[in-house]
Write a structure and sequence with these properties.
This protein is α/β, with parallel strands linked by helices and 197 residues long. The protein has seven helices and seven strands, in the order βαβαββααβββααα. The structure holds inosinic acid (IMP).
């Protein structure tokens, strides 16, 4: 049985990744290693993610996965981007809606960088999903889920936020995280000769 540790403090990310991976790779023990990782300051989240993976591996000394994400709002020149975590904690979803008041362009995208490292390599996989920022905050969900409506997912002609889509597990079928993990699964199963379901 292969073991991989997901190093993060975010249990929501772990649960989503576990749910996506368990239907895709057999013989995998996917564990949560709760640890806050120091992030370097850089404009590119890919670079931040690779550095985060190196320090996670040094800590765990076993194969690891880390994830770095951002919500990028087009009319705000990509803000909050790599500062998404801090911005969520400081102004939250209400603050984001306030920043977009009177703004016609509410388009945004989520980007995920998943990095796998086994000590010899650190390999990154990216996923992106486009959508709009809603005008109200919906119930449930975590982070920016209650204000993000992905495109092309019209369910009974109703635009649903990630928070609402998550109730029927639909978020995991199309999220930025899912897209990045699809690439990881393809690479990992080919390189580790594991069975793909
Ligand atoms: P970081 O990768 O931990 O720096 O997180 C970036 C921030 O983006 C998180 O703290 C969340 O607030 C937010 N975020 C990342 N992915 C998601 C998601 O799938 N749904 C909602 N918010 C997310």
């Amino acid at each position: 049985m292969n073991a991989i540790f997901f190093v993060s403090t975010n249990i929501h990310k772990y649960n989503e990744i576990k749910s996506i991976l368990q239907n895709r790779i057999t013989d995998l023990n996917f564990n949560f290693y709760k640890q806050n990782l120091i992030e370097i300051q850089d404009d590119k989240i890919e670079k931040i993610a690779i550095e985060k993976a190196k320090s996670a591996y040094n800590m765990v000394q076993r194969p690891i996965i880390i994830e770095d994400d951002g919500l990028f709002i087009n009319s705000l020149n990509g803000f909050p981007g790599q500062y998404s975590s801090y911005v969520f904690r400081s102004i939250g979803n209400r603050g984001i809606l306030r920043l977009l008041e009177g703004n016609k362009d509410r388009s945004a995208f989520f980007k995920s960088i998943i990095v796998y490292s086994n000590g010899n390599i650190a390999k990154a996989f990216s996923g992106q999903i486009n959508g709009n920022i809603s005008s109200t905050i919906t119930d449930d969900g975590w982070g920016y889920d209650p204000i993000f409506i992905p495109w092309n997912t019209h369910d009974n002609n109703e635009n649903k936020t990630f928070a609402k889509l998550n109730k029927t597990n639909k978020k995991n079928e199309l999220s930025h995280r899912r897209i990045a993990l699809d690439k990881f699964v393809k690479w990992f199963t080919q390189n580790n000769k594991l069975k793909k379901l």
